[in-house]
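hey m, so remember when u said the tokens were messed up on ur end? i reran from scratch. heres the input so u can diff it against urs
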Amino acid sequence: MQRRNTQVYIVRLWKETNSKQPWRGKIQNIRSGQSIAVSNLDQLEQLIRRCLLESQENKRKRATGLR
């Protein structure tokens, strides 16, 4: 059976009433507890992409015995 590489995050978004940036948010990695604030949805998308790419790279390193 192949092991899945699962990433679990909590994404919180809220609308700012008196701001040029209407959306703000925070993403938290459940496993590590690390959380990062974002000030717009583009930042959130970039952050999720980066996290997933890092996860793929870490999985590849583990599979090849690299650290």
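this time it looks ok to me. Residues 9-64 form one domain. if urs says something different then somethings off w ur setup not the seq
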